[in-house]
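in:
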């Protein structure tokens, strides 16, 4: 069995011990002035540095193998503090008379501002006092903080071996800690004043936060923020400009220091020609000591006040995703009136302001949505939700998807340029994943995500990051109705605030969809009940009328036959009488046929399983398309049987086909398309006619459309037939949809329930 070399284990143990030492030193540096003084902290540093260099080597009690010394340096006086010496690891009785020499390695390290190793420096030796104590090699480090020399660290070895790369790397860490300790220790004396000033600033910011969060009115909030900014910086003049995204300009919404009677001032474009415009354009603060100096003198736009201004401090308000919200601007008639500290305070106030503005805008959006819930069409309401979300989250693209069946999502509403009705699989899409998880999901780059289904669209539109929020019904164990997707055109890390805001808007959209569905079902149920009651009553009247007509008009052919039998000679002698008698019989039979066909609309509906393809073929034969009509059938052969009244459904298809033929003037393409979706089956009748006027679409299936069309002589095309079609489809338990664009024809789709088990 091979022997195990213990050296790596020992080295690892020594390294771990050194890392623990560094951690201990770091904690003590952090607590300088709170139970720890500077000399004790520096002593700990040199002790640990010695241990790091001496680890793994032998040493005797009287002659250690390594030592270290720190001297503090005053950069302003360019000299070492003679009382600052701290050491560790020196032999008993060793001399401490090793003050840095003018040309020694310590002074050279300061001048060169880098580490020096004695065995690499020709002509320069280790301090004689240290050589007498046994030192044979030296690593000398300048202690530097923020480009300022604060001291020197000497680390000595009592043998000729050189420092390893690991040892030098570890010493680098002790050097940084020593420099920070000295710098920190020097500042302890001034910490009380700085701390008191910071406490005062924090108290002002906390008060500002309370005041801002207590306001729900935008103008009140802006005036309050401006007043707080003036108080923090001791300024007397200022303005608050909000960014108008539509016009790409800044509009003053709050002013301080304006005498009565002076106008507010015109909006300023976001460009290089004004100071606030430049701040907004570059999204960076500007601290200007003197407005009369170039380049500020040429672009300064004066505040509407009665005194000339000399200095200015302007900070941008950056919202979600880096979106610009406005500019907070303070000015003074004195030069150099604002400090870098004032800038930091105002930037902190600006961050709080953005949160307040977002909260106010969210409240305004929710109030607007609540007001629109009962008074606005669902599609308009969803569009409003999308617009508000895009504005609040600062994204250009958003869409709302609804669940159509167990594995299909349908695009219900979106920003401009996206086709509604587009479908996605529920189980293999990012949108569907948010619905399944019942929580938001964020995607860094949809173009590289394997589950994103429309990468080519993302590339074309410039989409990068996305966030998807499920549409959940509150109080129904998180029942999902769909999802809300938003897309950014740059790499975006959506915040918790973004997610909470979208969840809130998504919940309102879900409630709106649910309410619309329930209202539609209630309306449909009422309409069906009213239709059924009306048809029952009219059916009774029609049956009685048909009976009476049959008794009276139906008796005419029988009487004519009796006359023909009994008066054959008279009829033979009078051709005129014979011809008119035959016309009377024909008219009577024709009248009864027309009445029976018309009353068929009113017969009791018998819902049964219907073969859609066969029903369509009978309707086509009845409509008899001419030779100039190109007829195409797609997906009809494999359709499942639907539940409907067979005779009435044939009349529905006949009416739609006949309307399409009339619209095309007996010349064009008639497309019959079948499809199945979940528990529904659909047949679409599409034509290539001129399309339907948009103004007619909302009332196309109402009975009033028949009256309006009849008055213009167009009843056969768009009138009574479509009213009957909609009535029958509703009675079947289905729905009727229409799509049309002028110049591109029209398409009517009949959705019917599928036969159970079919």
């Amino acid at each position: 069995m091979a022997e195990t070399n213990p050296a790596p284990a020992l080295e690892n143990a020594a390294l771990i011990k050194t890392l623990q030492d560094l951690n201990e030193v770091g904690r003590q540096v952090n607590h300088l002035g709170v139970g720890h003084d500077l000399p004790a902290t520096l002593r700990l540093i040199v002790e640990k540095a010695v241990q790091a260099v001496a680890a793994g080597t032998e040493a005797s009690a009287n002659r250690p193998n390594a030592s270290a010394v720190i001297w503090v340096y005053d950069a302003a006086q360019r000299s070492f503090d003679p009382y600052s010496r701290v050491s560790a690891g020196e032999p008993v009785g060793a001399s401490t008379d090793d003050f840095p020499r003018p040309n020694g390695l310590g002074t050279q390290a300061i001048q060169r501002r880098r580490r020096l190793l004695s065995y690499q420096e020709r002509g320069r030796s280790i301090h004689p006092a240290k050589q007498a104590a046994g030192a044979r090699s030296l690593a000398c480090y300048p202690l530097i903080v923020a480009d300022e020399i604060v001291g020197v660290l000497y680390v000595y070895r009592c043998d000729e071996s050189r420092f390893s790369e690991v040892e030098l790397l570890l010493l680098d860490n002790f050097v940084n800690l020593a420099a920070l300790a000295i710098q920190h220790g020097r500042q302890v004396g001034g910490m009380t004043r700085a701390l008191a000033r910071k406490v005062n600033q924090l108290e002002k910011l906390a008060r500002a936060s309370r005041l801002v969060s207590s306001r729900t009115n935008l103008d009140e909030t802006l005036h309050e923020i401006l007043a707080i900014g003036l108080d923090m910086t001791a300024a007397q003049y200022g303005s608050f400009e909000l960014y108008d995204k539509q016009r790409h300009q800044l509009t003053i919404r709050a002013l301080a220091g304006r005498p009565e009677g002076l106008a507010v001032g015109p909006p300023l474009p976001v460009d290089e020609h004004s100071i606030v415009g430049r701040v907004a354009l570059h999204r960076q603060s500007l601290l200007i000591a003197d407005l009369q100096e170039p380049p500020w003198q040429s672009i300064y736009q004066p505040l509407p006040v009665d005194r000339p201004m000399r200095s200015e401090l302007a900070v941008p308000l950056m919202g979600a995703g880096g979106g610009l919200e406005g500019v907070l601007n303070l000015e003074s008639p004195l030069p150099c009136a604002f400090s870098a500290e004032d800038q930091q305070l105002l930037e902190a106030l600006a961050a709080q302001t953005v949160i307040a503005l977002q909260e106010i805008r969210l409240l305004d959006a929710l109030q607007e949505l609540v007001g629109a819930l009962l008074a606005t069409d669902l599609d308009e309401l969803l569009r409003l939700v999308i617009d508000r979300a895009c504005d609040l989250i600062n994204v250009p693209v958003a869409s709302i998807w609804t669940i159509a069946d167990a594995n299909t999502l349908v695009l219900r509403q979106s920003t401009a340029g996206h086709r509604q009705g587009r479908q996605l699989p529920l189980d293999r899409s990012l949108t569907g994943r948010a619905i399944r998880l019942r929580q938001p999901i964020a995607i860094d780059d949809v173009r590289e995500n394997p589950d994103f289904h429309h990468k080519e669209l993302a590339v074309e539109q410039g989409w990068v990051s996305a966030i998807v929020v499920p549409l959940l019904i509150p109080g129904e164990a998180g029942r999902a109705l769909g999802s809300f997707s938003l897309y950014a055109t740059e790499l975006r890390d959506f915040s918790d605030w973004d997610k909470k805001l979208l969840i809130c808007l998504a919940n309102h959209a879900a409630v709106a969809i649910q309410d619309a569905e329930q209202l539609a079902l209630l309306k449909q149920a009422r309409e069906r009940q009213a239709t059924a009651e009306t048809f029952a009553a009219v059916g009774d009247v029609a049956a009685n009328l048909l009976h009476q007509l049959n008794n009276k008009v139906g008796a005419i052919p029988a009487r004519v036959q009796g006359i023909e039998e009994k008066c054959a000679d008279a009829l033979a002698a009078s051709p005129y009488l014979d011809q008119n008698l035959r016309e009377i019989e024909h008219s009577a039979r024709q009248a009864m046929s027309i009445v029976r066909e018309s009353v068929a609309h009113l017969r009791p509906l018998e819902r049964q399983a219907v073969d859609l393809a066969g029903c369509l073929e009978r309707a086509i034969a009845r409509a008899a398309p001419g030779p100039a009509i190109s007829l195409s059938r797609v997906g009809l052969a494999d359709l499942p049987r639907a539940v409907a009244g067979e005779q009435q459904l044939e009349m529905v298809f006949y009416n739609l086909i006949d309307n399409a033929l009339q619209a095309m003037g007996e010349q064009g393409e008639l497309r019959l398309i079948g499809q199945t979706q979940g528990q529904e089956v659909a047949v679409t009748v599409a034509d290539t006619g001129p399309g339907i006027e948009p103004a007619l679409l909302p009332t196309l299936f109402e009975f009033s459309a028949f009256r309006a069309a009849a008055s213009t002589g167009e009843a056969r095309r768009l009138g009574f037939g479509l009213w009957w079609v909609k009535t029958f489809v509703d009675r079947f338990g289905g729905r009727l949809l229409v799509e049309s664009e002028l110049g591109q024809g029209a398409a009517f789709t009949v959705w019917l329930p599928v036969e159970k088990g079919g």
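note: The two ends are 76 Å apart (CA to CA).
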